[in-house]
Each structure stands twice: as C-alpha cells, then as structure tokens.
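Per reviewer request, we include the raw input and output of the structure prediction for the construct analysed in the revised manuscript.
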Amino acid sequence: MPNYYITLYKLTDQGIKEIKSAPQRIEANRKALDAAGGKMIGLYATMGEYDYVSVIEVPTDEDAMTGMLGMGSAGSVRTTTLKAFSMEQFAQMVKKLP
C-alpha cells in the first residue's frame, strides 16, 4: 500500500524574501520527489496560518522524512507533516477492532 502524507508549510523570513523564486524551488522539489519514487498528488498555496499545503505519496516513512529534512535545511520553509491513510486503509484498520 502507498504511504500518503499531508504537509503544511510556513515560509521563513528567507522564504518570503525569495518568494519570486518559489515556483522554481517547488518544481525542483517535485522533480526530487519523482526521482525518489514519490508522487505529488497536489500542492496548493493557501491563505491563513499556512502558506502551502501538499499531499504526496512516497514509498516509505524514511523517504518522507528525508524529503522534509531536505526542504527544511534549505531554509525557505518550515513543515508540519501528517501521515494520512486512504479510506480503504482506514476501513481495514476498523475491521480489526474488537
């Protein structure tokens, strides 16, 4: 089964100063994700507490963690990542309940 993650992003001071290059950074991150065997299902610029929200699919938790650490270490964003489960996965979990 695939592993899904929802990530909430906040721009850092550096990220907002370099906002004009954000589309290029996002595309570079998308290509790195593809190269690691992952897939970006969606990425949205948002208003409110978070500046972006993404939904990605990657092979392992370790791949997700590596990607988030890489983005964080670049200095433009801080992330909060949530592991997500499809409704099919959720239904299988619920079936195991006593």
